[in-house]
Amino acid sequence: MEIKIISTEIIKPSSPTPAHLRTHKFFLPDNFAVNGYFPMLLFYSAQSKEDMKISSHLKNSLSKTLTYYYPFAGQIKDGVSIDCNDHGAIFIETQVVVGEMSKLLQKRDNNLFKQLVPLKGNMQEIPTTYNDANLIVQVNYFGCGGIAISICFNHIIVDGTTSAYFVKSWAEVARGANDIKNVVVDCSSIYPPYDAYASMRSLYEQNHYHYNPTEIVGKYFIFYGGKIAALRKKIGSGSYLDHPTRFEAIAALISGALKRNADKEAHEFTVKKLAAVISINMRSIVNPPLPPQCLGNLVTTAIAKLPIDEKIDYNYLAAEVHKSVKNVVDQYKTDTHVSGLVKGLANSTVIHFSDISRMPFYEADFGWGKPTLLSFVSLDHKVACLMPTSDVEAIITLPKEEMAKFEQDPEFLSYAKPFMSKMASL
Questions:
Q1: Which keywords describe this protein according to UniProt (predicted)?
Q2: Which residues are catalytic?
Q3: What is the pTM of this model?
Q4: Which residues are CB-contacts of 336 (< 8 A; sequence separation ≥ 6)?
């Protein structure tokens, strides 16, 4: 695939941010988030409009949307806040000179998808060329008329929920809406940020993001409805958990395959357990609850510690996932949780689980229809992410050697099928 940059410019909010809103304070979990970009891709089928009209439409609507999401147009100025100075978002446009969108979608190769985002190499690193912008958008135009919109957020202030509501709001503004709900809420009064937590974030990054991105493989797997029902029934037949949710059953299945294929010989002196780290949306569990569209990296995590050398019991694995999440929801305390997270990762091989299957990404209609595919391309560590598709689809990323074993696991493949395509390389 060959891509040519057409233009790069700064998009500022259509209305200046008022003086009393010029400082946005972090919520404690914002401090703990990895300082890097969180890129996503939305693919749209062939359009009848000219690229120039689409370009103007997207820029104007983005400018208006930034008046609601004004921290995205600001810059992080210290360890605890954003200077909402209307610096603006980076807006890049490219022409895909060689490469057909239909073949790209059929192939679903994450390495090819990465060519459509403005970040290269390790996406957790913020390029100095972007001057610490909190938001970078790249619109890729295909010769067939198709469009791929890459939206890259600074992960410190964005989680999956924020990204979903942002693209939904941007699309609503593009279609003429002017009544977007308030998205910027001062959460710092609930759990104030501490700059000291930067050291804990650094420890977390050192322990977790230690893979070479070129050695990471991301693949798509589909869990069909009937198979999910059968999996839940099978897992629910044990003595630890009666009725596992869809997420609990899939997390147990993936964890079991990873445990079964763990290279014990290479890990026996350092890795004693598998740590399943489960993302939890904090908006509904803090007191008082926060609006669902509230901006921020409002995610906490639960850790299910699964010893590698024990016999695999899916019911037990699902129960551990269930128990870890329930404990966090029932007894959420930020300080003990953060320290517990770092301790929970010690001597572990870590797999991150997240479920965005009910988030409104596919409602992002800019006036020419809803997206045909959503993809995340920055999963440069071990991740299993459930996607918002009609059948349950998951993006799973693993180091090459582990993926080679994982994707051949017969037990896993009895419930999930890899997304396959016989299309030639682009």
A1: Transferase
A2: 155, 365
A3: 0.86
A4: none
